UniProtKB/TrEMBL annotation:
The keyword Membrane applies. This is Transmembrane protein, distant homology with ydbS. Pfam families: bPH_2. The chain crosses the membrane at residues 21-44, 56-75. It comes from uncultured Blastococcus sp. Residues 82-157 form the YdbS-like PH domain. Keywords: Membrane, Transmembrane, Transmembrane helix.
Length: 171
């Protein structure tokens, strides 16, 4: 009995840094506060005797912001952490992203043109970085989000070195 060759389409092995949960919670708090201020201003400045549908919206808007806050702070960060995965193999970069719409990406090392490491303001507070892998593909850049800063730098250096070796072997 022969076994079928292993498909390259599989779930990547590594989760993002656990610090990503804190980052996503912080982003949820910031967004919820902004929406909450907007909903509060709407509720305060819309008169109670305004024409329909404004009286209903005076109280519906804060309620919807509260529901959003519960999802953005209490649910979404943990779900995203469970579903976002990444892996670097000898042949490719694998990513799996999305918590509602799932996107699986495989980038062969031979197609890599540039590898960048970026750190946003909030990422810096949590010690995280994003590794961006640029190819000549029409899909553009593949990103491995929210890795620990030292891991991201090692991954970027390793990928750049491997891509250079592949280019040198091709010439």
């Amino acid at each position: 009995m022969t076994t079928a060759p292993q498909s390259p389409v599989r779930e990547p092995a590594w989760p993002l840094s656990r610090s990503a949960i804190g980052l996503w919670v912080t982003e949820g708090v910031i967004a919820s506060l902004g929406l909450g201020v907007g909903a509060a201003l709407f509720a305060v400045f819309v008169p109670a005797d305004a024409p329909a549908p404004f009286p209903v919206l005076r109280w519906l808007a804060p309620a919807l912001v509260l529901v959003y806050a519960v999802v953005a702070i209490g649910i979404r960060p943990w779900v995203r952490f469970r579903v976002h995965r990444w892996e670097i193999t000898g042949e490719a970069v694998h990513t799996l992203t999305g918590w509602l719409t799932r996107t699986w990406t495989l980038v062969p090392v031979s197609r890599i043109q540039t590898v960048d490491v970026t750190r946003g303001v909030l990422q810096q507070l949590f010690g995280l970085s994003t590794v961006s892998v640029l190819t000549a593909s029409s899909q553009g850049t593949v990103q491995v989000w929210h890795l620990d800063a030292d891991v991201a730098q090692r991954v970027a250096d390793d990928l750049a070195h491997r891509a250079e070796q592949v280019r040198d072997q091709a010439t």
